Amino acid sequence: MKVKDAWYFNYTQKESEILQPDMAVPESHVGIYCEFEELVFPISFHILGMCKGEVVFDKDITAFGNGDDADISLRKSGYGAVFKIREDKDCEPDMLRVIYEAGGKSETFETECKYYTFSGQVSDFDGKPFPAVVMLYRYGFDAAPFIMGTWTDLNGRYSLRVPAGSYNAIYSDDNSYGISSLECWGWNIIADRDEVIDLKIGNGEVYSLNVSVNNGGVQTLFLTFRPMVYFKKEEYDTVVGEEKVHITDVAPEIAKEDVTVYVNGRKTDVISLQKLYEASPDGLHLPMYMVQIPREMHPDCLDKQTVVLEYDTKDRGNGRACSRGFTQFFYKDGFCTR
């Protein structure tokens, strides 16, 4: 077992500011991410948080691997695991030291801590404020106790102080989820500066948005995503390639003119839109789309890239379907890199 990352999330909202406590209540905590071939329990942690040379918390805790308790939670996925250790100090430590022992072996992990502020407004597709929760997954994709987040105010405005680093995803919605709305998702979010992130909630999702670079003769970007709407689920068989497959279809029918893409705030052309299928190892097939856009060279191409994709079918077809999603990346040696 090797600890690869540690952070402290300081949740400062008052109870009266939590608009829907039945949906989500974020918590202050120490997070520890480790990788392993085998987790051997018990695992003891000694965690030291420092700020300007002074100790702000000093905590000993043991994980026994027999489920969550009031002080420590664990989620595993493959060869990675996240420990959430509850701590409620109102502080931003600038250094964390984690001494951990398992199987008779002790090691130390130490990291400098930085923090940045995400802020903005959550709205709907009619431009109205949408009070909601804004949450981030740092690693993996699991239950709410492992999420960092905050609630907006009644005007949909939020400010969220987060530990520096990469996050698997950010999302926003309220308890109308699955009834009249679905989440606004951002993917591969990079907290390396204070940033304004406006979120837009509709009745669909831009799920698993990803960017790849065409470095061949045509200098373009490919955006792939799987759209969903809450009001559709159809099952049918079709032929993909030469294979007959069963489709579970929760996606709206999207046309090229329904799609709008922005790169670093600039609207760009949509060259093409193609329908594909995502396949799981157990045979599940779901409709997805690939959008091709120009790879435009601007002076900011050496900085972080933010790609925003929206679809809005207006009133065409069987009712309006709309959502926004976004993702971030850096170019390195001409390639898209995380």
TrEMBL record:
SUPFAM superfamilies per UniProt: Carboxypeptidase regulatory domain-like
InterPro entries per UniProt: CarboxyPept-like_regulatory (IPR008969)
Record carries keyword Hydrolase: yes
One term of GO molecular function: carboxypeptidase activity
Keywords: Carboxypeptidase, Hydrolase, Protease
Protein name: Carboxypeptidase-like regulatory domain-containing protein
Organism: Ruminococcus bicirculans
